[in-house]
Amino acid sequence: MTKQADSKNLNYLRDKDARLVRGIFKNFETPGGEVRFVYRKHKGEEIKKYILRDGETYSIPLGVAKHLNNNCQYPVHAYAMNEEGVPTMRIGKRVNRFGFQSLEFMGLDDLNTNPQQVIVTAEPLVSL
After folding, report:
1. Rounded Cα gap, residues 40 and 93, in angstroms
2. Cα(33)–Cα(12) distance, rounded to whole angstroms?
3. In the chain, what is the straight-line distance between the N-terminal and C-terminal CA atoms, in Å?
4. CA–CA separation, 57 vs 49, rounded Å?
5. Which residues contact 128 (CB under 8 A, 6 or more apart)?
6. What is the DSSP letter of 45?
7. Using one digit for the tens of pLDDT, what is the confidence trace for 36-60?
């Protein structure tokens, strides 16, 4: 029974990741440049080659768009003091190499849910 449920869930995720989304590719490392890569997320899928140029609009699978937004980054290390006053190294921030800005509505489950990402709330200043 669980094997059948897992297979059904895998098919659902595969279909969801294969849905095309339209958006603009951003290359933060080399503005105006292009990136070439191959991608396959699920076992049994065909390996596909992508060539994306900065600032151009594409229709790509949702799984590829999520990969560009969530997995194409590198850490910048920083030093911090722990409770004993000993300097330790930690990840200060993550720098995105590439991004994909969707031109369509995306649901809450499609957004980047990286737990290390800091959420900042902007509030208007009220002068007295």
Report:
1. 28
2. 35
3. 65
4. 17
5. none
6. P
7. 999 998 888 899 999 999 999 999 9
CA 32 to chain centroid: 20
Q: What is the DSSP string of 55-103?
A: T-EEEEEHHHHHHHHHTSEEEEEEEEE-TTS-EEEEEEEEEESEEEEES
Residues with Cβ within 8 Å of residue 39, at least 6 apart in sequence: 47, 48, 50, 63, 64, 67
Question: Which two structure tokens, joined as six digits, stand for 26?
Answer: 């951003």
- Under 8 Å CB-to-CB from 45, ≥6 apart: which residues? 14
Q: What single-letter amino acid sits at 51?
A: I
Q: Which residue has the tokens 């080659």?
A: 49
**How many Å apart are CA 64 and CA 21, to the nearest integer?**
10
Joined tokens for residue 9 = 């869930």
The one-letter amino acid code at 37 reads F
Q: How do residues 62-111 score in pLDDT, each as one tens digit?
A: 999 999 998 888 888 887 887 888 888 777 788 889 999 888 765 545 55
Q: CA 63, CA 11: separation in Å to the nearest integer?
A: 14
